[in-house]
## 1
Amino acid sequence: MEFKLKFIVLILGLVFTGLTAGLCFTWSNAVTPGIGRLDNLSFLKAFQAMNRAIINGKFMIVFFGPVLLLFLNTYLFKGNNTSFWLFLIAAILFFIGIGLVTIFGNVPLNELLDKSNLEALSKIELQELRDKFEKPWNLLHTIRTLSSFSAFMLLIIGMLYSK
């Protein structure tokens, strides 16, 4: 039973972390550069629409599930010194780089954008809103991308050392 639980938690943590890393990588390398080419109103409307669409149960489970799964995984592998440390670093990286950065960085920027009535803003106000939103959001997202990818790689390496 214990082996089965360890295996299930490890695989779910690995899959969800990999999906998150893939989402972050794709967003960084295709979505933001693509919509970054749009004019201010189109950019802000597109980002507003994507932010609203992405908040759903499936996304929340996959994106935030590893915060719990990776710490549980670390606990379950406490007897394996190398895997334990790799899994602990992965859990901390994911917690800080995805969990905290998202909650305290990206979400407030998303909420600022969500509260904005874009059609009522002047061209200058649209530019100011974009300036306030785009660069900080992209920087924070780069942290999320690097953190999730690093956590994913550490999980793979830790799995190779697991018994």
## 2
Amino acid sequence: MTEQIIFYLLALAITVFSILAVTSKLIVRSATYLLFVLLATAGLYMLLGYHFLFAVQISVYAGGIMVLFIMAIFLTHKPGTSVRTKRGWRIKSSALLSLAGIVLCGYIIITNGIRTYQFVERDGFTMQEIGSAMLGSQKGQYLLSFEMMSILLLACIVGAILIARKTKTTDHDTNETDQ
């Protein structure tokens, strides 16, 4: 009974903070709401007894990735300014595409959800099997995708720094011409 109450509270927190992260006009608040979503997700992992995933969620996502997001926000934007909301056809088309995505995902889950139970072993996996699957380079292993994700994050950091530099130099150039 207590676990169900905790689950529903965490699910409510994830839902509310996800909506707030998307609808907030201040970008730093959106990042803070995303941090709360990641922490509540870690709470779900703890509730399920996945202590390793709980620790990874807290250290990697709630710690490292959020620091990266906040740093990118401070480098690229003025954090106190509001983000302008889009109006008109963009909101309608975004809502329509979101609804189409939800319907497509629901269809895929309903049609393929039953098949996944055939492939899941009841005993589970050991840490050695998970580690070799994550860092292996053969078929069905994830080293390449892990490395590609790290290259993508590095490219995002470099892009954020380049955007921040261009913005600062153009602000400096316009101040000199004004004087």
## 3
Amino acid sequence: MSKVTRPQIWIIFGVLSLIAVLTLWFTLNSPRNDEIAKEQARFDARDQVAQTKPQADKKFKAALVSVAVAKADWGRYDKRFMPRINVSNLYTAWQQIQKEQLYDLGPKLDKFVKADKGVQIVQSSFSLYPPPNDPNQCSMPILVDNKGTVTVSGNFDAVLRHVERWNNFDRLVLVTGFNLQGNSPRLLGNYNIQIFEFTQGDKPGPNFPAASGGAGAGGMGGGMAPGGMMGPGGMGPGGMDGGGGKSMPGAAGMATMGGA
């Protein structure tokens, strides 16, 4: 075996040194390269999102327009169908609910039903729940009442038109349980109605301290006779004149109005 010459030793030494340097370089830089690759991937992902910003801005502006239109539509709807009950002041809201339940809604229902001359009103019975005793209970965003049952008689078209008329009532009405009995032209149509009333005000006002006896401030106990509307034995002038009994028990009860 021939001897290794000096040039060969330098070549071997250089190759080994290069291998060592490369190994050290990759060992030290591999984590950094991985981090760079990771950050590059994150950048690419965010860049894809950023490229959609003009389209997103366009959709956002369109959404703002849609919201404005919806608010305007609701404003007209609210003005047409909803009474003024503003819960930002609970005592005022309590008074407004009294007025709505006792003076406005009852007569409106009776007048609206009887105004349809295309059918015969066989029976109409409405339940008018009085306001709560405590103004603090008036903070609800929506009032929902099952108001009663109506039965009418007429031909098929007349009965359907009668039910459809509730779309023109100046409160939001849901007709439920509608059914027909008999044979045309003397059909009986029977249904129930619910009234939905949204209150106004961004947030409920402060609570009132409870008065003695458990009722809220200004609470109503015993019989209810606001402004002479309700008197002993029935309903005074301006009330609903159905054919059935008319009475209002205590504030926790309800007034019933029947018509035949």
